[in-house]
Amino acid sequence: MTSHLDRLDNDRIRGFLAAQKSDGPVLVVDSEIVRGNYAKFARALPDTRVFYAVKANPAPEILALLAELGSCFDCASVAEIDMALATGVSPDRISFGNTIKKERDVAAAHARGVRLFAVDCREEVEKIERAAPGARVFCRILADGAGAEWPLSRKFGCVPEMAADVLDHAQARGLVAYGVSFHVGSQQNNVAAWDSALASAAQIFRDCAERGIALSMVNLGGGFPTRYLKDIPAVDAYGASIFESLKAHFGNRIPETIIEPGRGMVGDAGVIEAEVVLVSKKSDDADEIRWVYLDIGKFGGLAETMDEAIRYPIRTAHDGEATTPCVLAGPTCDSADVMYEKTPYPLPISLSIGDKVLIEACGAYTTTYAAVAFNGFLPLASHVI
Amino acid sequence: MTSHLDRLDNDRIRGFLAAQKSDGPVLVVDSEIVRGNYAKFARALPDTRVFYAVKANPAPEILALLAELGSCFDCASVAEIDMALATGVSPDRISFGNTIKKERDVAAAHARGVRLFAVDCREEVEKIERAAPGARVFCRILADGAGAEWPLSRKFGCVPEMAADVLDHAQARGLVAYGVSFHVGSQQNNVAAWDSALASAAQIFRDCAERGIALSMVNLGGGFPTRYLKDIPAVDAYGASIFESLKAHFGNRIPETIIEPGRGMVGDAGVIEAEVVLVSKKSDDADEIRWVYLDIGKFGGLAETMDEAIRYPIRTAHDGEATTPCVLAGPTCDSADVMYEKTPYPLPISLSIGDKVLIEACGAYTTTYAAVAFNGFLPLASHVI
Predict the structure, then answer these.
(1) Which family is this sequence assigned to (chains A, B) (predicted)?
(2) Is A44 within a domain?
(3) In chain B, positions 161-220, which contact chain A (CB-CB < 8 Å)?
(4) ipTM of the complex
C-alpha cells in the first residue's frame, strides 16, 4: 500500500519520519539542503556577504551550520542576537536589522559588540547615537515590492529622497553613515526587482558624496523565493540580474553588498507531516464543496496562509487519483483558522480522516510563528536533521 | 505630571501596574470584573447554564474562579479539558465543543469522563460512536453571523436541513442525540441575532420529534460582545431578546439552554500595558502620515487586529491633547505586523518614543494567540489579579 512518505523525494526526511511516530504535526528540516542553498547564494553572488535572516528559522542547528559555512546573521531582536552569538560567531558578523528598536535593546546589542544597525528615520539615528556611539548605520528605503507574493507594506523604510538626510544626521552625530538597504518583497519572483531600488541607492550614494559622506555598502535585503507550487528562477539568475543592475547604476565603483536570505535559505529544506482530522460537507447537495480539516492551521505554524498568500505543496498517499477542490482549514475553534477557501485546494477524493499529509517548503516562517497554546494546541514540533 | 496610569478607571489594575516594572508588554486581568460578568450572565439568563469558552483566556486563576462560581466549561482540545479538570470540577461540567476532533482525542476526553460532544457531520458522529459510546452529542448548524465584528466563516456547522439526519445518525448508533448548537458570530452587536438560528433549531426539534427523537438542549453559543471603542448592549438586553425568541419558536416547551461566553466573560477584564518604540514618518512631506510602533503587535497578542477587525481602546498620558491619525504597527520585522492602517488610529501628537500606553479590553484572545518566539520576541506576559 502506498504511504504518504512515498511521495517524498527527500530520503533523509522520509527516513526520519518513517522512524518516528508523532501525535501532532511535526516539521523536519534537512540541514543538507540548507548547506546546498548557502553554496548557491555564495556562488551566485560571490562578492556579496550573506546575512541569514534569523527570524525565518532560528533553530540552533541551522544557525550553527550557517555559522560554520561563514554566514553572517541579520537579527530582529536581542534574543536573536544572543542566538547568533551562541554559535560562537564574533559580533562583527551580526547586523541588528530591525528599524524598530527600543533604545535599551540598542544598548544591549552594543554591549554584546554589535556595531551595525538599520535605521529609517532621524529618531532611530538618535537612539543609536545615545546607545551605540560610533556604530555603523544603514538607512532602509521603501521599495515597491511589485512581483512579491507576501504583502510588503510601507512599514519599513523612508522614501529614497529622505535617506541622504537621515544618513547625514547620523554622520553629524558621530555615527558612521555606512550604506543603504531595501527589501524588494518576500517570495519575489521577478529577478529584475532589485533594479529600481539599486537606482535609488546609487542616487543616495551620489547625494551623500556631495555632502562629503562616502557610503560603503548596499544591503540588498531578502526576497529570494522558495519553490512552492510554481517554479521559481534559479538563484544564479537573481545573482546575474543584480550584478547587471549594480554595474548599470554604480559603474566601476560597485559598493560592498550584503544579502539577507531567510525563506530562500531554509524554505525548501523543511517538510511538515500533518494529519487529516475531518473531511466533511456542509450540506448533502451533490455540488457542495468538501472541507478538509488538518491538525495544523493558521495559528499552529501556517501563518503565511494569511490572505492565502503562500500556497504550500501538499502530498498525500493518494496523489495521482482524481481530485476535487477542497476548503482547507485548521483544527481550532477559530473561524479565521482557514488556510484556503477563496481559492480552494485540489485534493484527492479518496483522502480520508486519519490520513497523513506532507506539506512541503515549510522550512521558513513556521515554527516561531506558531501560537503559544492557541485553543490548547501545542506549538509546532520541529527537528533539524 | 500625568501618567498613562491616570487614564485607568480600574484601581486594582492601576495599582498593580504602578508597583511592577516590566521590560515588555504585559496583560493584567482583574478577576473581580470576571466575577461581575459571570453574575451578569447568570442574572440575564437565569435558566441557562454557562459554559465558559476556555480558549478565550485559559489562565488557571480565571478557570478556578469560574469553577467556584458554578460555571461549566466549553473546551476546544484535550489540553483545555485537562485545564478545566484541574480546577476540580467534575467532567459533567465539561463540553468538548470543537467539531473537529481526532478520534484519539475523543477517546481521551471520554476516558476523563466527558460525555458531551459537538458534531456537525456524520463522520464526526462515527468517531464519537467508536471512541465515546453512549455519549451525548449536539449538532452545530451554520448561522449567518450578520452583525458580528469578528469574521465568521462556514468552518463550523452544517446547513440546518442536514442536522436532523446527523442527529438521527447519532441516535441510531447508540449515542444520545441531545440538541442543537450554533454561533451567531463573535462580538455580535445585534441582540436579536439569535432569533433566526433559534427558528432553525425549533424546526430541527420538530423534525427530530417526527422521527421519534426527543432533543433536550439548545446551545446558544457565544458572541456576547466586549466594549471596545463603541458602546454595546447590556447583557440583560441579550437575555431578554433570546428569551423572547425562545418563547416565539418553542412556545411553552422551552428546552434546556446553555451559553458559551468567552469574550463577553473576560474581554473587558484585561488591560495591556505596552510601550511606544518609535514614532516616525516615511517622508518629510507635511501631510505624510505618522507611524507609531508599539512593542506589541499582531504576533505578540493582538492577533484580533487581523483585517483590522477588533479596534481596541488605547489610553495615553496625553489623552485630551490634539490628535493626528496614525498607522499603528508592531515591533517585528514582518511587514504584515501592522494593526491599523486602512483606518488609521487617532493618537496624541505629543505621544513620544518611550511612552507607555494602555490597550483596553484585552482580556480575551490575546495570551494564547501570541506567537512562541516570533522574531525572538517573548510571548505576552500575563497576570491575573
Answers:
(1) Belongs to the Orn/Lys/Arg decarboxylase class-II family.
(2) no
(3) 161-162, 165, 186
(4) 0.94
